[in-house]
Design brief:
Layout: E1 5-8, H1 12-23, E2 28-31, H2 36-42, E3 51-53, H3 57-62, E4 69-72, H4 78-87, E5 96-99, H5 105-116, E6 121-128, H6 130-136, E7 139-144, H7 149-159, E8 174-175, H8 178-206, H9 212-222, H10 230-240, H11 262-273, H12 278-290, H13 293-300, H14 314-345, H15 351-357, H16 369-378, H17 389-412, H18 417-429, H19 436-447
Parallel strand pairs: 1-2, 1-4, 2-3, 4-5, 5-6, 7-8
Antiparallel strand pairs: 6-7
Helix pairs in contact: 1-6, 8-11, 8-12, 8-14, 9-10, 11-12, 12-18, 14-17, 14-18, 15-16
């Protein structure tokens, strides 16, 4: 039995993708470096399905239809290069290699070029949705060598999540590392969303003084409105979950957040391109701060806690407004970063299409992704979502509550690095004048870096001798 596609790497994500392909009528060949995993998989969840195993790469490639299509689901970085090197003796011109891991987009750019020189088509595909998404339908962000798209399109769109209108959450993103870049930004936005929600949770708990069950109900209510999203939905379920002793499980979880690096990559990419994705970067720093658990415990004993301000019942609604407005800023920053990267790399990204890819299957799927698509459909050159009439109206409705929430948090000593960062970005982005004129004067004073003048054309530079020469 010849396989339509092969998959290497049988961790949970890889196994679930295989089962997804098989459920859609495709025959899948599988291989894993630890070959015992192949037998275990075939004897368990893959039993009776159109899945064939191989004990070596040579056997694996013999089971594939021409041109051979191979999907790699291995750890990002050197393991991908090592596996490609092992595969090269078995690959022929026209074969297609897909990297479905969380690879750095620069690595994907390099691999596309290296393999194209050998006549091999390389695709880098962002896969979002976690284990459940891989099994039932992920959001897929394919990029790489466009020669391979027409061949893999039917298979990938078959396994992808479907939006409410039935369209697959999978479409061509762009050449080179574009697919993995969009996935990186997706993950950066995910960092921001999670931090915003965590701060909302702490505000409900420590400032609004809600009980755990009440907080779960608030999040469940938010999930029926403008904040409707996967992360809000699961937060309501998490807050309601009790442990075997009858207490709430989340209270037993250590307040130290881990990370795998994609949020950090987003921050580095933003700094390199000069794009102020402040909320995402603050979310990464918040996780780093959470890791300083022992130091935080020591410091908490040295400084008195701030007295919590008194708030009314409307404060809960205002927390929702702050979350909603900040979330819009998060997406606005993410799309600003993608626009800058597209210009730098020569990609022609369709930002409306990107928004549609995130409507189902992925971690950041949410209510207003359709509104993002509409914004870019009206104006494909839109430089920021905050300039679109819909988002202007929505932010304006939430602004007063947003300011009140951040003010109350600061007065109460509740850290809200993401909510406050989003508001500060908004105030800076909408300011006709910033104090950067003073900074530029300082730079010219100590380093003769020159400055432009408001009463002269842009691009004309001046220098002043700030102190009298003696």
């Amino acid at each position: 039995m010849e396989a339509d596609i092969g998959l290497i790497g049988l961790a949970v994500m890889g196994q679930n993708l295989v089962l997804n392909f098989a459920d859609r009528g495709y025959t899948v060949a599988v291989f894993n470096r630890t070959v015992t995993k192949v037998d275990e998989f075939l004897d368990s969840s893959a039993k009776g399905k159109s899945v064939v195993g191989a004990k070596s790469l040579q056997e694996f490639f013999k089971k594939l239809k021409m041109p051979r299509t191979v999907m790699l689901m291995v750890k990002a970085g050197p393991p991908v290069d090592e596996l490609i090197a092992e595969m090269l003796p078995f690959l022929e011109k026209g074969d297609i290699v897909i990297d479905g891991g969380n690879s750095l987009y620069l690595d994907t750019e390099r691999r596309v070029k290296e393999l194209e020189a050998k006549g091999i088509v390389f695709l880098g595909i962002g896969v979002s949705g976690g284990e459940e998404g891989a099994r039932r339908g992920p959001s897929l962000m394919p990029g790489g060598n466009p020669v391979g798209w027409s061949h893999v399109k039917p298979m990938l769109q078959a396994i992808a999540a479907k939006a409410d209108d039935g369209s697959p959450c999978c479409d061509w993103v762009g050449p080179g590392g574009a697919g993995h870049y969009v996935k990186m930004v997706h993950n950066g936005i995910e960092y921001g969303d999670m931090q915003l929600i965590a701060e909302g949770y702490q505000l409900l708990k420590d400032v609004a003084r809600l009980k755990q069950g009440e907080m779960a109900q608030v999040f469940a209510g938010w999930n029926r409105g403008a904040l409707k999203s996967y992360l809000i939905e699961i937060t309501a379920k998490i807050l309601a979950k009790k442990d075997e002793e009858g207490g709430f499980l989340v209270d037993k979880i250590l307040d130290v957040a881990g990370q795998k690096g994609t949020g950090k990559w987003t921050g580095i990419a933003a700094l390199e391109l000069g794009v102020p994705v402040t909320l995402i970067v603050e979310s990464v720093f918040a996780r780093l701060l959470s890791a300083l658990k022992n130091e935080r415990l020591e410091a908490s004993k040295l400084y008195p806690a701030a007295k919590k301000v008194d708030v009314d019942k409307q404060f809960i609604e205002k927390i929702g407004q702050a979350l909603y407005a900040s979330k819009m800023v998060s997406y606005a920053q993410g799309f600003m970063l993608m626009r800058a990267a597209a210009h730098e790399m020569g990609w022609k990204l369709n930002y409306g299409t990107v928004a549609l890819l995130w409507r189902g299957g992925c971690i950041i799927r949410s209510q207003f992704l359709g509104d993002i698509q509409k914004a870019f459909a009206k104006n494909s050159d839109l430089s920021s979502l905050l300039l679109d009439p819909f988002f202007q109206k929505e932010v304006q409705k939430s602004l007063a509550g947003w300011r009140e929430v951040v003010s109350a948090a600061i007065l109460s000593g509740v850290p809200t690095s993401a909510l406050a960062s989003a508001l500060t970005f908004f105030d800076g982005y909408t300011a006709a004048h910033l104090p950067a004129n003073l900074i530029q004067a300082q730079r010219d004073f100590f380093g003769a870096h020159t400055y432009e003048r408001v009463d002269q054309p842009r691009g004309k530079f001046f220098h002043t001798e700030w102190e009298e020469q003696t």
